[in-house]
Write a structure and sequence with these properties.
FAD/NAD(P)-binding domain; Guanine Nucleotide Dissociation Inhibitor, domain 1; GDP_dissociation_inhibitor; 13 helices; Rab GDP-dissociation inhibitor activity; alpha/beta; 7-stranded mixed β-sheet
């Protein structure tokens, strides 16, 4: 370890591993250290033993839950948008060679105490109980506007300026009811609250386009998910980094980050060893003095079930969104469901992970409606995560810190963070060219 590197990366969360992989491909000499003995950091997937160690150290898993190695429980419940930025990065870096994906079978939205499938086809929209007949026509006009929208063709803008008109004004133009606005804003644009209504419409429209393009890719839902859990994603980028000379050290303590007389980072100390580098990237847990709380805390409950979610046609995987208006809250509640068919649970078992931003001192009671939708569950593990962000941008001391994983249901904000850190380090936007696929022999070298 006593040598010089271009970049040292601390922690093996997804953000850190993507940056490690990208910088290695660009020819940087990268050392990647994690104090934990497994990949993933805050975005790891845990087997039963590690899950109990983390959340219930004095208890043992029941035998009925099956083999330890059959379980890979995600600490952060997120799916990938089929046409999203993370999927594009995976494809262009050829990291998909180390991963296998399965489509999430459905997306549901909660209204008036029950859940309904988010329609993905015109036939589903016609049959959907989410809208009345006249509202379906208005919704169809709105979706036609989204589908026909061309930036450089003003005739497709229908008199709207999406950089000036708010989303409330766009909804008003199409005469959409409040329930439909909820459905569009939260189940399609995937906003976690209603702040977007007073913002210029551009980002919401771009999010709806991404949703519709992702649905169009495979049908059923806009989401895909890696077999064996989300912890596979950082491992895949770690392999990419290793192929290009990156060095990985797990279960390695980080005792000190060292700075020179000018206050710029110069290396990392572990025991008696020092690794030198002029750039250090890391997650917030390695830099408690350099991060601040965002003021938001995320509640997550990992529930183990031995049956599919009621009223979902026995689907093996799905997402349920409970828009905040439905429960008179400020933030949505998400439920991500995966199962044995994704190699994350033992046979005939399902994993349902509830997550939301906390609004009271009793988050489990805030989420009572979500728990009710699941039916009976065999086990539940609850955790609260503080969300952190860096105080400075890293340009002074060359320490670049990622943000905590937020409450959103997908990885688009994570890839925004990756692109932002990359730009601060290099001064140029992250553009990932399609990489030549390696042969198996080259991969093993």
């Amino acid at each position: 370890m006593d040598e010089e590197y271009d970049v040292i990366v601390l922690g093996t969360g997804l953000t850190e591993c993507i940056l490690s992989g990208v910088l290695s491909v660009e020819g940087k000499k990268v050392l990647h250290i994690d104090r934990q003995d497994h990949y993933g950091g805050e975005s790891a997937s845990l087997n039963l033993t590690k899950l109990y160690e983390k959340f219930r150290p004095s208890a043992q898993p029941e035998e009925s839950l099956g083999r330890n190695r059959d379980w890979n429980v995600d600490l952060i419940p997120k799916f990938l948008m089929a046409n999203g930025e993370l999927t594009n990065i995976l494809i262009n870096t050829d990291v998909t060679r180390y991963l296998e994906f399965k489509q999430i079978s459905g997306s549901y939205v909660y209204r008036d105490g029950r859940i309904s499938k988010v329609p993905t086809t015109e036939m589903e929209a016609i049959r959907s109980p989410l809208m009345g007949l006249f509202e379906k026509r208005r919704m169809k006009r709105f979706l036609e506007y989204i589908g026909n929208f061309k930036e450089d063709n003003i005739s497709t803008h229908q008199g709207l300026n999406i950089d000036k008109n708010t989303m409330t004004e766009v909804y008003y133009k199409f005469g959409l009811e409040s329930g439909t606005k909820d459905f569009i804003g939260h189940a399609m644009a995937l906003w976690t609250n209603d702040n977007y209504l007073t913002q210029p419409a551009r980002e919401t429209i771009e999010r709806i386009i991404l949703y519709l393009q992702s649905v169009a890719k495979y049908g059923k839902s806009p989401y895909i998910y890696p077999l064996y859990g989300l912890g596979e994603l950082p491992q895949a980028f770690a392999r990419l980094s290793a192929i290009y000379g990156g060095t990985y050290m797990l279960d390695k303590p980080v005792d000190e980050v060292i700075y020179d007389e000018e206050g710029k980072v110069s290396g990392v100390k572990s025991g008696e060893e020092i690794a030198k580098a002029k750039i250090v990237i890391g997650d917030p847990t390695y830099f408690p003095q350099k991060v601040r709380k965002t003021g938001e805390r995320v509640f997550r409950a990992m529930c183990i079930l031995d049956h599919p979610i009621p009223n979902t046609d026995n689907l093996d995987s799905l997402q349920i969104i409970i828009p905040q208006n439905q429960l008179k809250r400020k933030n949505d509640i998400y439920i991500a469901v995966v199962s044995a068919s994704h190699n994350v649970a033992s046979k005939n078992h399902y994993l349902a992970i509830i997550s939301t931003i906390i609004e009271t001192d009793t988050p489990h009671i805030e989420c009572e409606p979500a728990f009710k939708l699941l039916g009976a569950y065999k086990e539940v593990f609850m955790g609260i995560s503080e969300l952190y962000e860096p105080i400075e941008d890293g340009t002074k001391d060359h320490v670049y810190i990622s943000k905590s994983y937020d409450a959103t249901s997908h990885f688009e904000t994570t890839t925004d963070d990756v692109k932002d850190i990359y730009f601060r380090i290099t001064g140029k936007p992250l553009v990932i060219e399609k990489r030549k696929a390696l042969t198996n022999e080259e991969d093993e070298e």
